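Re: that chain you flagged

S.,

Sorry for the slow reply, it's been a week of failed gels. I finally had a moment to sit down with the sequence you sent. For the record, here it is as I used it:
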Amino acid sequence: MSDTPAVAVVTGASRGLGAGLADSLARRGVRLGLCARTRPPVPAQADAVSRVVDVTDGDAVEAFLEEVVARLGPIDLWVNNAGVLDPIGPLAEAEPAPLLRHLEINVAGVALGTRAFARHVRGRPGGGVLVNVSSGAATRAYEGWAVYCASKAAVDMLTEVVALEEAGHGLRAYALAPGHIDTDMQARIRSMPPEAFPAVDRFRRVHADRAFTPPEAVAAFICSLVRDPATAGGAVRQRVPGPTAGR
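Prediction finished late last night. Pasting the structure tokens below so you have them in one place:
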């Protein structure tokens, strides 16, 4: 594989980190498969396939992968970025429907994207790099974030298992905590009252200090993983170096 992937897929690419990754990868000349619940914008001058895809629909994910391959060629990098934050607040007060939908998107959606890409890598020569976007919340408990912390912990362990299962097929898998990114998700966190999310002041300080990790830094780190496996030091769980300790 070259210094940058020839073809990359980014889920949840309509806004926030996903859109930022798409822009950064496009500037590197990467051909892109982009999907989200709303059709992602295509970066200027990018060669891209952009589609509306529900990541919890396995057939839709497979069909999207096949379209990207037919249009752009074999996929070198797959980034499972699609995810949600709500519900926020004590678990005892959560409504069942949004709780279950959260787990469906953040865990099942990542599992289905991972499955599709692993099958793709198995079916062609050469390897591939999988990046599942995780969070510092995977390893740090926050009151009011029971479902989010649990979903990201699940992503970490899922990725570690897949790294073992697929190593012999040339797939390298990473669970990546990107740091604090200046997105609508961060704004949502900062809007919460302390009684629902007691750690809210920590995130407000990050905003006040502008201590954000830019999407370009995340893209650069991902490209370093593609270019040189030694960047990861043999670890599946990775964190983008930056001004804050975790997303």
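What I noticed first: The chain has one domain: 7-179+214-239.

Talk soon,
D.
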